[in-house]
Amino acid sequence: MQAQAWSDVDSCSEDRSASTNRQKNRVSCPSSALEAIGLCVVLAKPEDLFTKFPTMSEAIQVNVEWCSKSSEYKDDGTNILLDANENAYGPGLALSPDGKLVNGSASSTAVANGTADSNTEVDLLGLNRYPDPHQHELKAGLCALRNTHTHTTKDITPDNLFVGVGSDEAIDALIRCFCVPGKDKMLTCPPTYGMYGVSAQVNDVAVVHVPLDAANDFALQPALINERLTADPAIKLVYICSPGNPTATLVAKHAVQQVLEHPTWNGIVVLDEAYIDFAAPDASLAEWVADWPNLVVMQTLSKAFGLAGIRLGAAFAAPNVAQLLNNVKAPYNVASPTAQLARQALAPKHLAVMRANREKIVRQRERLVAELPRVPGVGRFRGGTDSNFVLVEMLDAPQGGKPDNGVAVKVYEALAETKGVVVRFRGKELGCEGCLRITVGTEAEVDRFLEEIRVVLADIFRGKGQTGVNGTSTEAQKRETEVVT
Ligand SMILES: Cc1ncc(COP(=O)(O)O)c(C=O)c1O
């Protein structure tokens, strides 16, 4: 049996762990933490790691746990994957009907002046050479996109950029640059993206939590954050996710500014804008790094750009901070096909495809917001609607019930195992009792999701195949502990 390490670590607990009727061959694989430190091995059981590599048990720090209990989930193409916040409408690239890139352009000058329209495609003949370690042209394209002059009159330049293997690389690189293992700390605001905690653990950095305000659409609590920063100078990084995952709430600019303006604290505020292109136009604060030397803004091509498969993330920062990040990275971290596709994605005609896909996603998001509450047993939306997913409560009764994790787990399981629809259980996150996180799909996917969740909830309330609404089935209990860290 083979388990291929799953690199989509939407969080430590966010692997596609639900098996479907077509995918029962669940196997153990290395934890997200191990994947994060680059150990990608083919194993049947975690214990095999130590048999296969006898010295490894000593090499791995004891605090790097098997944190995700992840199981491999392979899609056979028939399932509806609404669990990893990918772009349901595909890559933001102008493609021919057979999926080939048409009239792409890798020319930076053309990208910069908006005339990119040559017949260049991905240069496979150059693959015998290592890629460019600096990626200046790609960085120039990213700057051109984010120099909107909405938040500053200054321009950012390639000197303000780090590019890496997804924004997950930037999360890790920042910790390695700014935190001394076993001594320094970082601050996160739960509920939030799990990879901050995974990277902290891998780097032996303690995490201090200042929760979002669950009673107030998961707003940031800058006064509380500042209090903690004053009290604990060992905190070197503050990770703020905007729009949040799983909250889908854009963080108010003034709240970020309040932390940036902390009078004595001497650390870095990291703003994770993975989902920023689903929020209001010009919401990105990337260009603000020209004004704030203590701000880093992370972005990715994995979400609105629909390019999760190429693994390209970026961190915008003051030049001295960007330089530090570039100093700690592996020299050839961005593969040349990735860089070429990323550069082309930033050219106007491909950006037009990305924006058209974004509009389609926004329309389907609006449909979910309008239609989900009509399903008996569906409760409130939690958080906001600034992303390509929604967070919604499952209730313990068809009408007037209260949020219930038992029901949410059952819905999650039944959707995956009997309907081939995979969503994400989020009920164990702070302030998210009874919640599922649902990635916005295509129109057809949303049709099917709405139909299936109605059936599944009705079955649960009839007690069909379950131990009852308030009792959780053994299988459900098992899964509940599996999917939640
Ligand atoms: C908030 C957030 N940040 C960063 C990432 C990582 O994205 P990437 O694919 O660029 O590593 C994700 C992925 O789901 C995310 O949800």
From TrEMBL:
Q: Which InterPro entries match?
A: Aminotrans_II_pyridoxalP_BS, Aminotransferase_I/II_large, HisP_aminotrans, PyrdxlP-dep_Trfase, PyrdxlP-dep_Trfase_major, PyrdxlP-dep_Trfase_small
The reaction(s) catalysed by this protein are:
L-histidinol phosphate + 2-oxoglutarate = 3-(imidazol-4-yl)-2-oxopropyl phosphate + L-glutamate
Its Gene Ontology cellular component terms are: endoplasmic reticulum membrane
Question: Which regions form coiled coils?
Answer: none
Where is this protein found? Answer: Endoplasmic reticulum membrane
List the molecular function annotations (GO) for this entry: histidinol-phosphate transaminase activity; pyridoxal phosphate binding
Ranges for domain Aminotransferase class I/classII large: 125-453
Cofactors demanded by this protein: pyridoxal 5'-phosphate
- Pathway(s) served: Lipid metabolism; sphingolipid metabolism; Amino-acid biosynthesis; L-histidine biosynthesis; L-histidine from 5-phospho-alpha-D-ribose 1-diphosphate: step 7/9; Sphingolipid metabolism
Q: Which Pfam families match?
A: Aminotran_1_2
**Predominant localisation class:** endoplasmic reticulum
Keyword Aminoacyl-tRNA synthetase assigned to the entry: answer is no
Q: Sorted alphabetically, which keywords does the UniProt record give? A: Amino-acid biosynthesis, Aminotransferase, Histidine biosynthesis, Lipid metabolism, Pyridoxal phosphate, Sphingolipid metabolism, Transferase
- Record Gene3D superfamilies: Aspartate Aminotransferase, domain 1, Type I PLP-dependent aspartate aminotransferase-like (Major domain)
> What is the E.C. number?
2.6.1.9
Annotated region Disordered: the residues are 1-25
Biological processes, Gene Ontology terms:
L-histidine biosynthetic process; sphingolipid metabolic process
Membrane topology category: Single-pass membrane protein
Q: Name the PANTHER family for this protein.
A: HISTIDINOL-PHOSPHATE AMINOTRANSFERASE (PTHR42885:SF2), HISTIDINOL-PHOSPHATE AMINOTRANSFERASE-RELATED (PTHR42885)
Classification via NCBIfam families: hisC
Family per record: Belongs to the class-II pyridoxal-phosphate-dependent aminotransferase family.
Q: What is this protein called?
A: histidinol-phosphate transaminase
Which lineage ranks, top first, belong to the organism behind this chain? Eukaryota, Viridiplantae, Streptophyta, Embryophyta, Tracheophyta
